[in-house]
Specification:
five-stranded parallel β-sheet; Rossmann fold; 55% helix; 8 helices; globular; alpha/beta
């Protein structure tokens, strides 16, 4: 932590509890006097908020390839404006989703070119990778129940059928199979327990 910041990505399907973990993790680390930045994709910048509206509310007008390229545009702006400066300021950055979401959703579920997505992600991210990824693993049925329990307007992704979600889950399994910077968390645990496990893993990582 002396020479650079620390980048954390939180991944999982919609309804897994990513946003809640991101907030809880940020709050606990702040209480421990860490310099923390909480952000998200898409929507971490002013441009990203506009792109998020298109992606989540107007998807019927966007083809699959354009969908990924909009996410990539959001990612490029996010890294240029938020991530890279914050790393230089030696902050702990917690991002609700990063590049692996595009691999799972647009690559494996939409069946776009995996290698091309990786190449564009690397370009948009200046070849920067997360120091640690928390993947919240949960079954589709539970995730869908949570989504509807929120009683909020569904995003374009939340409206997808079960077979789409299965492809996303299978994609995450393939993406994280041989990763060394991944911590898998049981999404069926309480939010407090999930956060405690994440905090312990993080402290162990940054203290090495």
């Amino acid at each position: 932590m002396n020479k650079k910041g620390f980048l954390i990505s939180i991944e999982g399907i919609d309804g897994a509890g990513k946003s809640l973990l991101a907030k809880n993790l940020s709050n606990k680390l702040t209480l421990k006097n860490f310099d923390v930045l909480l952000t998200n994709e898409p929507g971490g910048t002013s441009l990203g908020k506009k792109l998020r509206k298109i992606l989540h509310e107007e998807k019927e007008n966007v083809c699959d390839l354009a969908e990924f390229l909009l996410f990539a545009s959001d990612r490029a702006q996010h890294f240029k404006q938020i991530i890279i400066p914050s790393l230089k300021d030696r902050k702990i950055i917690i991002s609700d989703r990063l590049a692996d979401s595009s691999l799972a959703y647009q690559g494996y579920a939409r069946e776009l070119d995996i290698q091309m997505i990786k190449n564009i992600n690397n370009w948009a991210m200046h070849n920067i990778e997360p120091d640690l990824i928390f993947y919240i693993k949960i079954d589709i049925k539970t995730a869908i129940k949570r989504i509807f329990k929120r009683n909020e307007t569904l995003t374009s992704f939340e409206k997808e059928k079960t077979n789409f979600w299965q492809k996303v889950l299978d994609g995450y399994e393939k993406i994280f199979k041989n990763r060394k910077n991944i911590v898998i968390l049981d999404g069926m645990l309480s939010p407090e327990k999930i956060c405690d496990l994440a905090i312990n893993s993080l402290i162990n990582k940054i203290s090495k």
